[in-house]
Amino acid sequence: MKHARVHAFLERPVGCGWRAGPLALRPVLGWRAAFSGAAADRGSAALGAAIFTPVFIALLALVIAAGRIQIAQGAADAAARDAARTASLADSPDTAQGEARQAAAESLRRSGLACSDIAVAVESDGIDAPVGQAATVTATVSCTVPLDDVALPALPGTKTLKSTMTSVVDQWRAR
């Protein structure tokens, strides 16, 4: 009988099996199964969290920075649109320059964008066109936005945004 038990033990598959004993049937694990299960995974959750957390925070900061740049670009587009429209309504090219700068600054202030440097260039030659001739006015707004508060080493400290918009001058208005 003893010989039959040893023979059955040697023929079972490695890593699994059942053995009858005083505590009824209980699983029998080979040495491969013992070290490839839960014991080998001990601490892997902490290691995964230690690797994943900084990567997740960096990606989150990158998404926030990209969103802020996109919002700032929208504000620069709105400022250029306002500047071009205001310049197209001006009576002369000289007043168009000043009014366009004021309109762009007011638009950026309303948007809450904190630009460290604002530049407005207006091509207002269309204002002097004769009555009945189609003409346009183009405004370009450049705005430098600080990104210092987004803590990513790869991001520059500032980002310069540039937007150009064109507005049609009313061809039948008195000039």
Automatic annotation (TrEMBL):
Domain called TadE-like: residue spans: 43-85
Keywords: Membrane, Transmembrane, Transmembrane helix
Superkingdom, natural source: Bacteria
InterPro entries cross-referenced by the UniProt entry: TadE-like_dom
Membrane-traversing stretches: 45-66
Name of the protein: TadE/TadG family type IV pilus assembly protein
